[in-house]
Structure formats: C-alpha cells, structure tokens
C-alpha cells in the first residue's frame, strides 16, 4: 500500500492512457519506438514550464529564479529553461559554455565552486560572468587575471555561514567546509576586495540541498538575510545581488511529502520588505536545480530477462547504476531506498508481483528496485524510474564496464 501511494503521487506529474505512461503528450511505447533504443532519459518540457510557473505564482514577484545547471546540463533542457528563468548558476567551464550559448546575458550567469583553474577564471572574466569567490587566494587570482585582461571582474562572495539548512539531504554550510569563505572572515576579505578594485556584486549563501521542510528553509532564509545585512556594512559598495541558495527538495521515497512552496513564499514576502529597507539596491535570487527538473524526467530501460533465484523474481534490464547512480542508492543514501519504479507500459497491471529490478553490471550494487510491488512484467516490457530529471546521467559512472551511454530526449 505504501508503494502504491508513492507510485500514485509520482505519476501525478504525468498521465496514463490504456495502462501506458504518457510523457510529453506521447505514449511511452511510441516514444521508445521513436528513440529507437533503450535505455534513455526523457524530459517533459511542459512539466518544466509548469514548475517555473508554480514558483512565479507562489513566490514574491521580485524574486529572481536561477537554474543550477549541475542538476541537468542537457543542452536542450538548459536552452528551454533559459527562456523561463532569470539566470543560470554554473560550476565548471563546461557548464559555463552551455549557459553562454543561451539567450541569457553573461552577467545573468554566476560561476561557483572551489578549485577554479586559472584558465577557467580567465574565461569567466573575459565573458563577463559573475565569479563567486570561494577563498582569498581565488580572489587574488581573479584580480590578477582582470589586470592582465584589462577587465574589471564581476565578483560575489560565497559565504560559509555558521548555520546549516536543517533536515537537508546534503549540508553545504556550517562548520568547516571547502565551500565559500567563513562568515567571520568575510569582513577582512571585503576590505581587500575593495583595495583590489573588483566589481563587487554581492553575496552567495548556499546552505543545503534536497530539503522537504518549509520550516527549515524559512529559518535558513531568515538567517541568510540577517547575515547579508550584517556583512553589507563591510562591503566596498552596495549589495546588488543576494543569492540565498536553494535546497528545495522533491519527494522520492515512501513517507516523503511535497514541499510547501506557499509557506516559503509568504515568509519570503516578509523578508523582501526587510531587504528593501536594509539593502535597497539588492535583487534577491533563488538558485534551484532539482526542484525545477527532477519530477519532469524519467529513465527508461527494457526487460531482457525474467530470472528466478530461490523464490525471488529478478527483472534483468539493459539499464543500471552506470546510467542512474542515484536510483541504485549510491549517490548519498545512508540506507538504500527505492525510487518510484513502474512498468511503464503496464502502469496499473491487473497482475501484481514483488520483484527486484537489476542491470547488466557485474556488481550486486546494480539495483534499480529492491523487492518492489509492480505490474507483472515480461521480456521487452519497459521499466521506468520516475523522479529522474535531476542528477541522473551526468551524476553516474557511465564509463564503468564500458557499456554505451543512454540517449537523452526533451519532449
């Protein structure tokens, strides 16, 4: 029953006709025929658009929406989102090139992450991208590259606050971290930034990811705004941009409840009044990745064999952890949990059975579903992993055992 409730909630993002999953208005079987091979990822542009529209409705109109490309860097997805959001956040020179190839102006793109190489900094400065400074050393390198190029680099200080985003799947702040500059040291860095003649844009504070608690996110937003106001007193010029991070989660597992976006919006509306008074020149941005794309994507593989082993049914497929590491449980889960998995061409299915879905790799970790109830499947049926629009293909070890990579399509 718990799995069926999760399956129903996950399928709410899509429609079902004649017992077959529909994505992008197309039956899964027809889509599979058009793709011509399995496995593949499919992303629904309409669902992505609807998610952005939801945020526009529930959040203050002044809030900028930025897309964190690392969630899904497929060029077609990024191009689609570029027409919907206000900016892009990148974490490598490769992602920066994808973002620069969109309609967005370079100053709408920010480049974060520790360990940026000299040529990456040089490229970002030359392009006019905002560089999120992660250390004093990096700031000095930026200044040097700016002098060499005859360009004044645009920079924001990434701050490592002394608080964390509670209940997060992955905590990015609080305590010792490789990300950003410790908040207590930022005033010193801001003074040096002014002496170096850099174009100070503002602050970037990213506290955590995959959070389903509106209360925790509200608290982090409040602390972030107060911290930015305090640090602004030391800035060489007024704050123009305050990136308050993201962390908006999506439900993957039994018991997960969707995030209350409306409650977050009400709290942000209150905070915007404070920001207007204390930081009148600042625009506020939310940096979202997973929340924009995760529920708009599926991963599809094909059943190659039904195998019985000591009373347990295994569906052996042509997909696996090399394509979808997160679904296998090997992308940060302490205790492995099943993603929502269905037989996409037999969604309801009159006959149900308990099965495990595995891939073709020579490791017991190659497990897409462990003892899950689903429609009885046969060879050539299509196994679908829902909630697969974020941290799928590019977060997976595609070179492991040298199987061919899956195709990606935007429909």
TrEMBL record:
InterPro entries: Ala_racemase/Decarboxylase_C, DCO2ase_PEP1, De-COase2_C, De-COase2_CS, De-COase2_N, Orn/DAP/Arg_de-COase, PLP-binding_barrel. SUPFAM superfamilies: Alanine racemase C-terminal domain-like (SSF50621), PLP-binding barrel (SSF51419). It comes from Nitrosomonas supralitoralis. It comes from the Bacteria. One of its GO terms (molecular function) is diaminopimelate decarboxylase activity. Belongs to the Orn/Lys/Arg decarboxylase class-II family. PANTHER family: DIAMINOPIMELATE DECARBOXYLASE, GROUP IV DECARBOXYLASE. The modification N6-(pyridoxal phosphate)lysine is found at residue 70. Keywords: Pyridoxal phosphate. This is Pyridoxal-dependent decarboxylase, exosortase A system-associated. One of its GO terms (biological process) is lysine biosynthetic process via diaminopimelate. Residues 41-389 form the Orn/DAP/Arg decarboxylase 2 C-terminal domain. Its cofactor is pyridoxal 5'-phosphate. PROSITE patterns: ODR_DC_2_2. The keyword Protein transport does not apply. The active site is at 362 (proton donor). Residues 46-294 form the Orn/DAP/Arg decarboxylase 2 N-terminal domain.
């Amino acid at each position: 029953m718990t799995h069926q409730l999760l399956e129903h909630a996950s399928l709410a993002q899509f429609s079902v006709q004649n017992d077959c999953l529909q994505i992008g208005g197309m039956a899964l079987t027809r889509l599979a025929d058009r793709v011509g091979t399995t496995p593949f990822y499919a992303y629904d542009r309409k669902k992505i658009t609807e998610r952005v529209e939801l945020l526009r409705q529930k959040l203050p109109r002044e809030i900028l929406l930025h897309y964190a490309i690392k969630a899904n860097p497929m060029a077609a997805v990024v191009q689609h989102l570029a027409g919907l959001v206000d900016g892009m956040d990148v974490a490598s020179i490769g992602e920066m090139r994808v973002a620069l190839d969109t309609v967005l102006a370079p100053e709408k793109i920010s480049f974060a992450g520790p360990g940026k190489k000299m040529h990456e900094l040089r490229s970002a400065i030359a392009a006019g991208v905002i560089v999120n400074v992660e250390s004093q050393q990096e700031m000095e390198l930026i200044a040097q590259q700016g002098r060499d190029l005859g360009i004044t680099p645009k920079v924001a200080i990434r701050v490592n606050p002394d608080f964390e985003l509670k209940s997060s799947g992955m905590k990015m702040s609080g305590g010792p971290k490789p990300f950003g500059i410790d908040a207590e040291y930022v005033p010193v860095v801001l003074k040096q930034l002014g002496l170096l003649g850099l174009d100070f844009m503002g602050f970037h504070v990213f506290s955590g990811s995959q959070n389903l608690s509106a209360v925790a996110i509200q608290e982090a937003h409040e602390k972030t705004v107060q911290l930015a106001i305090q640090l602004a007193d030391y800035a060489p010029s007024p704050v123009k941009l305050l990136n308050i991070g993201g962390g908006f989660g999506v439900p993957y597992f039994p018991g997960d409840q969707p995030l209350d976006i409306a409650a977050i919006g009400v709290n942000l509306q209150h905070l915007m009044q404070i920001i207007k008074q204390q930081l009148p020149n600042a625009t506020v941005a939310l940096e979202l990745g997973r929340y924009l794309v995760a529920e708009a994507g599926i991963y599809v593989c094909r059943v190659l064999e039904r195998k019985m082993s000591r009373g347990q049914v295994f569906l052996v497929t042509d997909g696996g952890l090399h394509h979808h590491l997160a679904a296998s449980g090997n992308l940060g889960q302490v205790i492995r949990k099943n993603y929502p998995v269905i037989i996409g061409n037999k969604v309801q299915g009159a006959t149900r059975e308990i099965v495990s879905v595995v891939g073709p790799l020579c490791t017991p970790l190659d497990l897409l579903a462990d003892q899950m109830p689903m429609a009885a499947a046969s060879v050539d049926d299509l196994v679908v992993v829902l909630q697969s629009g974020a941290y799928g293909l590019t977060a997976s070890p595609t070179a492991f055992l040298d199987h061919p990579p899956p195709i990606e399509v935007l429909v």
